[in-house]
Amino acid sequence: MASFSLEHLPVAVVGAGRSGRAALRLLHEEGASVRLLEKSPENMPEDFSAWLSERHIPVFGGEHVPAYFEGVELVIPSPAAAKAVIEPLLPLRADGTKAEIMAETELAWRLLEGEPVVGVTGTSGKTTTTSIISAMLKAHGLCVFTGGNIGVPLSEYVLARRRGEKKADVIVLELSSFQLQTCSTLRPRVGVLLNISENHLDFHKDMEEYTEAKMRLFVRQTEEDTAILSPTLRHLPEKFGMKARVLFLTPGARPFPETRLIGAHNQSNAEAAFLAASAFGVTKEEAARAMREFTPIAHRLEHVADIAGVQYVNDSKCTTIEALKVALCAFERPVILLAGGKFKGGDVEGMKPLLAKHVRAVVLYGASREHFEPAWKDTVPVTWDETMDEALARARSLAREGDAVLLAPATSSYDQYRNYMERGGHFRTLVLKMKEERP
Predict the structure, then answer these.
(1) Which segments cross the bilayer (predicted)?
(2) What is the pTM of this model?
């Protein structure tokens, strides 16, 4: 890694979420002259506020304005802060340029000590695939750091190394389009692109920009690196001038049938994981052991319980129509579908063939009834209840032995819950209570 000095560099960090806090601590430790822009500083963790105060780090509250960025040479945005929103706020410098906008991941990457990186992106399946890769690498006896969009910022790893913690043999990062859009030198030893479908168009201006952001994962790769892509994306390597060795996933492959993961798409995720892990010496036997022992990620087709021959599955992370398609195709048994929440758009009418094939009944709850019921009621029986508690009770009464009751909302959670995790947690609590009360 080339030398990257932050000493006395004026830097603005936008947002005091976990990645912003980690970036700010790292910048301060590296000697940068840092400031924080946070719209609601009163909501910051108390210990972090105290840390800022002790070090006399300025905090600019309220809506961001150009004055807050005066004199800044580098901007580290929150993953939720779009480049298109920040860039117009940056003042022109004397030479007619503006400060560089850099992802927290890129910042931390420049401060690594040569650790090889596996980067995983895609519209769906990122978290599961990232976790499987890490499990396979660990089965080979490697020390692995797993982070990025999966929840632990890469800056936290760099800070831990500064404290003397063990160096990772491999770093595995889940990377969103938000992060990749402002990465400029990131070069993963292995890059994985699982799929691309319409998403985050409230952040990106169009699908072209969204795709270009995803493809930044491969921009710095060379012939010595590996790129793993879905077979539906065969047109992209030539279009984007990729230099890495390109491997395509096998349609319909079932490389690891012994697993607790539900669905054919997870077999595809497992194949991608093994191709990535094998670049570091992982054998098929080690990968198979990791898959047998792998615990499904919470809220992603998570098996919660079997009650009276009915399988209850939590897929609260299913927040789009595209994700609902994947969820339904994962089941060979009839499904009682729980859906509802704040609608994000998508082709609801186009779901009819899959509903007819996989679903015995749809049990709606909360918001978006007006989107789903008129479109689906002539294909499958559709009911509606105000709350999930009521809807789940109804689903239980409709379910027969051999069915699956599936929470796959196809919406965001913001009608009744703070996030998809709270929604999925509520479903899990209700199901486990049902199991305890069963005579």
Answers:
(1) none
(2) 0.84
